[in-house]
Design a protein that fits this description.
- The protein is 80% helix and 0% strand.
- The mean pLDDT is 77.
- The chain is mostly helical.
- It has helices at 3-8, 10-27, 32-51, 59-64, 66-88, 95-106, 110-119, 124-149, 159-186, 192-197, 201-224.
């Protein structure tokens, strides 16, 4: 199989991963806590294999692209919150449901967006440069967004810790990828390692989706029950 074939069929691979996760959850419901703990190291490895494909030396060029940075910040922190505010007007008047929707839509998963940018053959250097800026602004602006959009008595304790944890989940594989890039560029023959690692993002992302489905399916079911 060619790698391009694997990438073109990735949507079907992810659908199969979801069904496998649901099956695992149904057959072994007690395994969810273990799978949830396994999720984080797998996610770090996924990000490492993604970052190894990124030309880290070009990150400075991405920061110089002011039009891109401005458009991304405008979309993420002005236009998107306005759209979210409009959408929640159509939701049932249930504070827990509205809070869940707000957190999902206002705090997009930065590490996933880097991975999907890479798989979609976008500018992963731009995505990677934007990631720490997005995380920081999420941390600063989220309490204000929730105060504006939700009437619930919100407890944001732990929210900064969650965002800091996400930052470390990005930094660890990023540092590892930078070290690997320097090691591989020291001898051209070592670049074969990068080609080998390029096969791994799709299977690892499928594994992450499987782990999330198997470990969190019960929580989602409780929300809608």
């Amino acid at each position: 199989m060619l790698r391009i074939t694997l990438e073109r069929q990735q949507v079907w691979i992810y659908i199969v991963a979801i069904f496998c996760g649901l099956l695992i959850r149904h057959q072994w419901p007690g395994i969810a806590p273990f799978l949830e703990k396994l999720l984080w190291p797998v996610l770090i490895v996924l990000l490492y294999t993604t970052f190894v494909q990124v030309p880290l030396l070009h990150l400075r060029d991405a920061f110089r692209d002011r039009r891109f940075i401005s458009a991304a910040l405008l979309g993420n922190f002005v236009l998107l919150p306005l759209l979210v505010w409009g959408l929640i007007q159509f939701l049932p008047d249930q504070p827990s449901l509205r809070l869940g929707v707000l957190l999902v839509l206002l705090v997009p998963c930065t590490d996933w967006f880097i991975t999907f940018t890479q798989l979609g053959r976008g500018s992963s250097a731009h995505a990677l440069a934007l990631a720490p800026v997005i995380l920081l602004l999420q941390l600063v602006l989220l309490p204000g967004y929730l105060w504006w959009m939700s009437d619930a008595d919100l407890s944001l304790q732990g929210m900064p810790q969650s965002l800091l944890a996400a930052l470390f989940i990005i930094l660890i594989p990023l540092i590892g990828a930078a070290i690997s890039e320097r090691w591989m560029e020291a001898k051209p023959a070592r670049l074969i390692w990068r080609e080998g690692l390029a096969w791994w993002p799709v299977p690892l992302l499928a594994l992450v989706i499987l782990l999330i489905t198997a470990s969190q399916a019960a929580s989602v079911q409780q929300v809608f029950s």
